[in-house]
Amino acid sequence: MIRAALLIWLTISLAACASPHVFPKSLEAEMEENKDLVPVGGRIVRTGTQQQDGVLVVVERLPLLHDDPTQGPDEKALADEWFMFFLKGDIEELGRMTGNKLVVVGKWEGTQVAEVGTLKKEVPYLVARCVHVWKTGRQKISEFPHLSDGYYPLPRQTYCVRK
Predict the structure, then answer these.
(1) Nearest 5°: phi and psi at 37?
(2) Which pTM value belongs to this model?
């Protein structure tokens, strides 16, 4: 009886330590084969603009924690640049909120002019295949689940190109 309980506890503990998949396994396999598909971490600077066939988002680039997309962006690092990505499909309003952290997988396609307030600058442009968003707003990922006003689970979601 004790042995069975120990085995169940060990199984649950190991499953909890396993890295969760934030992107479809098919995309992860494609990233290994196609080195043009890259994961990039960041924080949303400007709420994404909904286009007719997708969404355009300006992002402050942040390095990935341990170079692992499942760990998310390193919020303690200083942003080294901005970039813009386009996802054919939709990201709902809560997912496009300024300050949200994300990891986007896509292919670099030159540059575009990004506008934030009165500032315009040319930034790298990524055509996204999938985007995983931690819906934190201006809070840090590490502050969840205990915020100053109570307990909240961290909402997060993956959005991929619609076919």
Answers:
(1) -85, 115
(2) 0.78
